[in-house]
Amino acid sequence: MKKINNIILTDGGLETDLIFNHNIELEHFAAFPLVEDHIHKNTLKNYYKDYLEVAKDSKTGFILESPTWRANLDWGLKLGYTKERLIAVNKLAIAQLADLRETYSKDIQNIFVSGQIGPRGDGYQVNTSMSYLEASDYHNLQVQAFKEANVDLVTAITMTYSEEALGIVKSTEYHNIPVVISFTVELDGKLPSGESLKEAIKKIDNETGEYPLYYMINCAHPTHFIAELETDEAWKNRIQGIRANASCKSHAELDEALELDKGDKGELGVLHKKLQLLLPELKVYGGCCGTDVSHVTTICNAIRMDSESLFTESEVLVPINDTLIVQSEMDPKSNKEGLLILTKNLLTSN
After folding, report:
1. Is 289 annotated as a binding residue?
2. Which of 70, 178, 190, 262 is a Cys-bridge partner for 153, taking CB atoms 3.0 to 4.6 Å apart?
3. pTM for the full model?
4. Domains in the chain and their CATH numbers?
């Protein structure tokens, strides 16, 4: 009898992979225009397929993150996009991922399509900050587009301060869409705003009744934030995903780098094993700057041996009234039941 596990993979550093490994120039570090390019949209498709093959071989779930990190009003304007064209390209990105999910629906039990949102400004520092109300209004364009495109969830990546993240949560809550918040941190494990992970997570949870499905850390090497997680406090259990950088370098050093730093893959795998022990709810694994499919494969191999489930391929745990039950024959097209695998009730040790 084949077994599945409760690991969910996602992709690595899309933009750095495209720039350094595929020699594709990305103006303003934006990948979303490629979904409209008749040549490069196939490059994107093959990029995701490489990761889906890893999930298929490893019997894990997978989150397809849309290449829309820069597809907001400010960055869109710099790239010549009107509001209407931005809405259309966000929807198109989701439609292309939905087609990929259909292709792999018989091979991978749980595939989720996520609409990705990036910060309004720089992903490495706080320039001009917004109140949560301003952030909610600003990011509503993408959130509403994702809602209309029928995403499974929205993921806000590389958040540098809590107010912008809170605004995105408020917008997704209004539209009744599940949301994941991912913070980036500096060498000291703090957000670029100076907030600690604890402060940012507790603030948002207190303001929203724990509306986010979970939190993540991205665009930082594990050595930058492991010390922040060496605590028994309950807040860290809300961190259920990691998308780490390959490099140990600071954001400033990476910003000035002319060559790709792929880091030490073996060390990255070992560090993720340590993170798995420090974060009992950790289930979602991917990569960020400098990582490619080989890094995610190494991470998966390092952590999956002790994470196998005892359930068959046709079964999935579903929380009903705070009780975990086994549900079989999930609809592979809608994945609505499967989305529950991402909730805080399910992301627990079996």
Report:
1. yes
2. 178
3. 0.86
4. 8-311 (3.20.20.330)
